[in-house]
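Researcher: We plan to redesign the surface later, but first we want a full-length starting point. Tokens attached.
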């Protein structure tokens, strides 16, 4: 079942992207992914140890966050993996937050100007980004596929950048899961190149697994039985591919095979509604007028009450709507599993 909303592009935000270094680094701002999370006094403790290493075990009310590129953005289009987790642990009240962004790589995550920064636009009438940040809990990291296109000669750079990302997140949580990249497929315009690309990709996957072992982090494989029909363009998973990925990951984390297919229409719609609201909150359009560098212009203010910022008012209303949709998700998950 495909959600009724379409893939969001983030609107004008993509026209105002700023490099991760540069200005914000000079101002002492944290890296983009780190500053997307709320600060904590103590990092979240690691997963309990199982017979074969860390055991995936969510805690009540825990937030499950995802970091990656386009393929991870697409998790929210179908909802299979989120539904599977909710159906496995319906009593825990889990929250799902997708922090992925099209074009993100382990080397660089471009974001709009003043995105979750402490210091905002200096022009009169502007305010810093005050949106709620994601509470640290379980964080899945899924990088490596697009980076592998640069060849094995860049593998040391990849490992160094991946290591830095983990180091950025460890002060927040020790419950980090590294995900093996999905393969390239013999479909789409570059079908003939899939075999050679996957040979290089395998070395990246092995490096990620070694990194997980060295850091005592959980590592999950993408899947075993991939077919050309699971991707339309040879790079990104289609709906069928997303279902295969979801079932594979759910099986490895102890949620059981095929849980992702058991969501009711009501649960499916609640997940789609929540994810749409979250993307409107995390990746709002008209960013320049919200917390960017055009907050001072008349178009950013209420037509009648000029002292009020109408877009800020709308953004501030979204957390309550997201919480309401999450309550529906948890209720429908419980009803489905009774």
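Model: Full-length starting sequence:
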């Amino acid at each position: 079942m495909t959600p009724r909303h379409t893939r969001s592009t983030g609107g004008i935000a993509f026209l105002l992207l700023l490099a991760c270094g540069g200005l914000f680094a000079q101002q002492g701002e944290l890296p983009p992914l780190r500053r997307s999370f709320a600060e904590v006094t103590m990092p979240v403790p690691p997963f309990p140890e199982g017979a074969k290493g860390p055991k995936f075990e969510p805690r009540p009310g825990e937030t499950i966050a995802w970091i990656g590129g386009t393929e991870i953005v697409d998790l929210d289009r179908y909802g299979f993996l989120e539904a599977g987790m909710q159906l496995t642990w319906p009593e825990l009240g889990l929250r799902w937050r997708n922090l992925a962004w099209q074009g993100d790589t382990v080397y660089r995550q471009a974001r709009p100007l003043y995105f979750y920064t402490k210091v905002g636009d200096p022009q009169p009438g502007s305010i810093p980004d005050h949106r709620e940040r994601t509470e640290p809990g379980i964080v899945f990291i899924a990088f490596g596929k697009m980076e592998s296109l640069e060849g094995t000669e860049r593998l040391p750079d990849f490992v160094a950048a991946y290591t830095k990302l983990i180091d950025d997140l460890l002060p927040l949580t020790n419950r980090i899961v590294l995900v093996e990249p999905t393969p390239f497929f013999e479909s789409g315009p570059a079908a003939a190149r899939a075999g050679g690309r996957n040979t290089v990709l395998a070395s990246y996957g092995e490096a990620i697994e070694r990194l997980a072992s060295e850091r005592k982090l959980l590592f999950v494989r993408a899947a075993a039985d991939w077919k050309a029909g699971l991707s339309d363009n040879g790079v990104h998973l289609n709906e069928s591919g997303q279902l295969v990925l979801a079932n594979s990951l759910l099986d490895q984390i102890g949620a059981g095979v095929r849980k992702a297919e058991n969501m009711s229409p009501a649960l499916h719609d609640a997940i789609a509604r929540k994810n749409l609201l979250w993307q409107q909150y995390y990746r709002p359009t008209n960013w320049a007028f919200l917390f960017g560098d055009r907050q001072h212009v008349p178009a950013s203010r209420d037509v009648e009450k000029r002292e009020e910022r109408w877009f800020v008012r709308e953004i501030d209303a979204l957390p309550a709507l997201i919480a309401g949709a999450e309550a529906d998700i948890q209720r429908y998950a419980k009803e489905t599993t009774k």
